[in-house]
């Protein structure tokens, strides 16, 4: 079974600074996908960024970038120029193939990010 | 762009009652997933449907059942509700035809179920 580990239950960052949220994973499947989702206090799950196991370059989406180190099995999310609206819970997730032919997402325990003035 | 729609957004039930949660996936998405997120927990996969057929089951209790209809909407039926069923229930949909290289799952806003 696949496993996602997020070791930072909570993080604080000052507005306009960059912050790195850690994520490590464990899988025996050579083909996998890694996702980051943002969950504000309102509860919705917002897709941020994706990294495929065969992607040669680190993914970037606006202020979000993924520091993918395959040999170390880590996929850290970097948020640049933090904004107050970035305060939320952030989940790292891995797409896992299932026996029925489909797939599911396995989530880490999340990191609560608080952006301060 | 159209998103995943879930109804109701909030639901309050008593123990031992039943509940039905509805999900309308993004048009032309062929796969629907249900997740349960308990308070302070990460989402846990319950069940998925591909082209209206159940494809995989996760940690879904026997008291729960789900189906996907001909119009692709899905319903999660929950019977004999327990206090521990209080959670945020997400539906997600994805396009697994290969049109999207990510096959990312787009989540609905969730249904917050409270069992009293």
Strand content of chain B: over 45%
Main sheet overview of chain A: 6 strands, mixed
Order of helices and strands of chain B: EEEEEEEEEEE
Radius of gyration of chain A: 14 Å
Can you give a write-up of this model?
The complex is a heterodimer of chains A (117) and B (116). In chain A, 0% of the residues lie in helices and 54% in strands. By secondary structure, chain A is mostly beta strands. In chain A, β5 (33-39) and β6 form a beta hairpin. In chain A, 37% of the residues are buried. In chain B, the strands form 2 sheets. In chain B, strands 2, 4, 5, 6, 9, 10 and 11 form a 7-stranded mixed β-sheet that branches. In chain B, strands 1-3-8-7 form a 4-stranded antiparallel β-sheet, with no helix packed on it. In chain B, β5 and β6 form a beta hairpin. Chain B starts with a strand and ends with a strand.
Write the layout of secondary structure elements.
The complex is a heterodimer of chains A (117) and B (116).
Chain A: E1 3-5, E2 10-14, E3 19-21, E4 24-26, E5 33-39, E6 46-52, E7 60-61, E8 64-69, E9 74-79, E10 88-97, E11 103-107, E12 111-116
Parallel strand pairs in A: 2-12
Antiparallel strand pairs in A: 1-4, 3-9, 5-6, 5-10, 7-8, 8-9, 10-11, 10-12
Chain B: E1 5-7, E2 10-13, E3 19-24, E4 31-37, E5 44-50, E6 53-57, E7 64-68, E8 74-78, E9 87-94, E10 106-107, E11 111-115
Parallel strand pairs in B: 2-11
Antiparallel strand pairs in B: 1-3, 3-8, 4-5, 4-9, 5-6, 7-8, 9-10, 9-11
């Amino acid at each position: 079974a696949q496993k996602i580990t997020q070791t930072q239950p909570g993080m604080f960052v000052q507005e306009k600074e960059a912050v790195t949220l850690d994520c490590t994973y464990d899988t025996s499947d050579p083909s996998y996908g890694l996702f980051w989702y943002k969950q504000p206090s309102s509860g919705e799950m917002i897709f941020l960024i994706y990294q495929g196991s065969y992607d040669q370059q680190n993914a970037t989406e606006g202020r979000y970038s993924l520091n993918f180190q395959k040999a170390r099995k880590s996929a850290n999310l970097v948020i640049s120029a933090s904004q107050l609206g970035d305060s939320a819970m952030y989940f790292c997730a891995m797409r896992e193939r299932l026996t029925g032919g489909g797939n599911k997402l396995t989530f880490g325990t999340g990191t609560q990010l608080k952006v301060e003035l | 762009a159209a998103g995943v729609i879930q109804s109701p957004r909030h639901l309050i039930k008593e123990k031992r009652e039943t509940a039905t949660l509805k999900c309308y996936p993004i048009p032309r998405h062929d796969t629907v997933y249900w997740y349960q997120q308990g308070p302070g927990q990460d989402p846990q996969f319950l069940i998925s449907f591909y082209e209206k057929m159940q494809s995989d089951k996760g940690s879904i209790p026997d008291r729960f059942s789900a189906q996907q209809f001909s119009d692709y909407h899905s319903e999660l039926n929950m019977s004999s509700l327990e206090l521990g069923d209080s959670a945020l229930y997400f539906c997600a949909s994805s396009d697994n035809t290969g049109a999207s290289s990510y096959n990312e799952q787009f989540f609905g806003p969730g249904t917050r179920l409270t069992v009293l």
